[in-house]
Amino acid sequence: MSDADQRTVLVTGATGNIGRHIVATLAAAGHPVRAASRHRPTDPAAATSHVPFDWHDPATHQPAVDGVHAVYLMPPPASADPVGQVGAFLDLAQDAGVRRIVLLSSSAVRTGDPGPGQLHATIADRLPQWTVLRPSWFMHNFVGAHPHAHSILRDGEIVTATGDGRVGFIDAADIAAVAVRALTDPTPHNAEHLLTGPQTHSYADVAAMISEVSGRPVRHRTVDADTMRHRLADLGIPHGFAALLAGMDAAIAAGSEDRTTSTVADVTGRAPTSLRDFCTAHAAHWRPI
Ligand SMILES: NC(=O)c1ccc[n+]([C@@H]2O[C@H](COP(=O)([O-])OP(=O)(O)OC[C@H]3O[C@@H](n4cnc5c(N)ncnc54)[C@H](OP(=O)(O)O)[C@@H]3O)[C@@H](O)[C@H]2O)c1
Description:
About 40% of the residues lie in helices and about 15% in strands. The chain contains 13 helices and 11 strands. A 7-stranded parallel beta sheet has the order 3-2-1-4-5-6-9, sandwiched between helices. It has a two-stranded parallel sheet with strand order 7-11. The longest helix is centred in the C-terminal third of the chain and has 15 residues, at about 240-255. It binds NADP nicotinamide-adenine-dinucleotide phosphate (NAP).
């Protein structure tokens, strides 16, 4: 039986917050999976299924998609205009027989918006089986490699241009659980999924919760969108993408993310993780030494 017959799933961003959960879930279920990333995953199950994949090295694309049925597609990171790169990849993928794409987008990106928003229609127009995941902001931004995680540990603060705006923060594992269903359900979803956690919180709420569970004093410092844009650019984020992110903060301040949906529970059959449970589970990460 060929790979395609076995419905192999290619997972891009396989070492990332969401991708590693997707690979682990598929591998544990015995589903054929290919873990695509530049670096080799450390998890043994993912390492054995690893294929080198770099958005900026087209020579890695064909071997990754050969014999694949479905792709979890994380667009090129930090790109404000990913349509060209993703379009060329889709040409290869469709020629190789890929039938289903599950695209990672964002709750802040609407179909038809410039840049990443153009990908929604591209996927829906070109693939017979498609899903667009539009998650809210990740709880994992407060741990790991994200600028918020660094500033919590270094300065005891989270800096945003979100004011008192509220966000339906979501656990990456819940996004991955929806992605696995979209990749493997016999009936394709052919839908956009707007994904949030169970409640909305302001960044001041997040800072207070981290302080409470860890004992490390953390505050939220709000700045204007232009200051935020410069701050992100100074951290090495490309200028176009820094402007996009600062604009999203301004939209949050105006209330754009003050909403929750039941989609995680509707698709997976279980309630999404709350921010409090996430913070409690990660308290050791922030605890002062
Ligand atoms: N953070 C948020 O709150 C939020 C909210 C909504 C949507 N999003 C979206 O989520 C995505 C980030 O997801 P995530 O947190 O899972 O990412 P992540 O944890 O930062 O992981 C990034 C993944 O991409 C891979 N990667 C990096 N550069 C690459 C390249 N040039 N070619 C191929 N692979 C590359 C990395 O592996 P290697 O380094 O090994 O290649 C890694 O597996 C972005 O598309 C963002 O727009 C984020």
